[in-house]
Amino acid sequence: MCQESTKFKNVWTTHSASPIAYERGRIYMDNYQCCITSIAQQPRLIYQKSKCAKSEKIEDALLLECPLGEMLPSPSDYKASLIVLTVQNWLLRLSADSGEVLEKVYLAGSCCKFFRYLSWDTPQEVMIVKSAQNKLPAAARQAGIQQTVLFYLAVFQVLPLSFIGMLEINKKIFGNSVTDVAVSNGILIVMYSMGLVRLYNFKAILEQFMEQPFVLGQEFNWNGQVGVVGKYPFGLPCNIKITDTPPLLFEASSLENAFQIGGYPWHYIITPNKKKHKGVFHICSLKDNALAKNGIQDMKCCSLEPDWIYFHPDMSGRIIHVGPNLIKVLKLKEVKNRADQMEIAEDFTIVANRENCVNNSVTVTASGRVVKKRFTLLDDDPEQETFKIVDYEDELDLLSTVAVTQIGADGRAHLDFHCNEHGSLLKSIPLKESWDVTYSHEVYFDKDLVLHIEQKPNRRFSCYVYQMVCDTAKDDDS
């Protein structure tokens, strides 16, 4: 991968009027109706389904992969499949190899809309389907009718697909200022309009408030309704009724509800809940809310795009802080002679290549006249090399960065591989296509593959695929 002779060659480019998605070696186009493998030397078509009706449009998808060491009821369960959510409240499991529908679950009738929100509670084990926020019709609101149920959450065990339960997020239980909810790693995260974030034990909620378990395909008689679980028109029963506020695990106030947990021992990252603190991050102990030594991280960058921070996905407990021209990898360590206190120390930094950039506010001409600039160059000025994407490739243990420089209409980007342990640069790959910083971009680095998806105005999408080529001499000769 990192040898000097190894090159990455642009082997395939395509354009589309609909979004392009990528999942583990598969490129999906035309609303998941077309699937292309990117694993082969030249991407090739796996399947192409006929165009679907608007009512069958897919809004979100998750890739399911077979768990190791488990006996599964159907041979199709051992192959990768795609769970998709349609606009008409259908949850479908599709074969990743053919697009064939393996299972269909109807989620709910007209009471709520399930679309766009598929996520993992526990990856490849427990899946959450969240409804759109419930809103009363205008006439009902004018009549003074109050909407108390904000969201519905449907919970599934996957492979084999089984229904755990459905619950509602109600203002009467969680408060009137709830704006959003999420579930991750057994924790229910409730967000409020004033920046407050509250955490509850989701597994305990399922166990405590479950009224009756149900099985997909089973006939039921529930609150006067008779039907089949997961079949049209009844869908799924709301069998988890939260009747009292669950015990609170933790709460914090943060700007824009931004809140993350990670590190070892457990710490969390927030931004103080005032606009003037945007771009300032506090790293605190989850045990006692104590601010770590050097726990206030502020790059003091002047830029249009804010810097961002997150716990390193390699499970090392480190923290990655990304600014326009600087990437800091931070680590938690014990304060000397203070085993009960942690401090934030710099592990390594990656700096953008800006040695030719001069940003003097005062210039002296040849005649000796002093000229003062009326403006200061921003840290993420497009004419300077700026970091746009930072990612981690777990199978190769490499940290990848995308840096972009745009002069006029021509933008140039390169993907760099860094040692994840020390940050040293191992390889740089120039991307051949022009990169406009005003467009939306995604870059995937997956073993010997680099894939760049670009969204241009008017819903025009492009996909560029690069493959690793080791024997460059023969390739150039041919």
From TrEMBL:
InterPro entries: DCAF17 (IPR031620). Keywords: Membrane, Transmembrane, Transmembrane helix. One of its GO terms (cellular component) is Cul4-RING E3 ubiquitin ligase complex. The keyword Transmembrane applies. The keyword Disulfide bond does not apply. GO terms for biological process: protein ubiquitination. Signal peptide: none annotated. It comes from the Eukaryota. The chain crosses the membrane at residues 149-169, 181-200. Pfam families: DCAF17 (PF15802). This is DDB1-and CUL4-associated factor 17. It comes from Lamprotornis superbus.
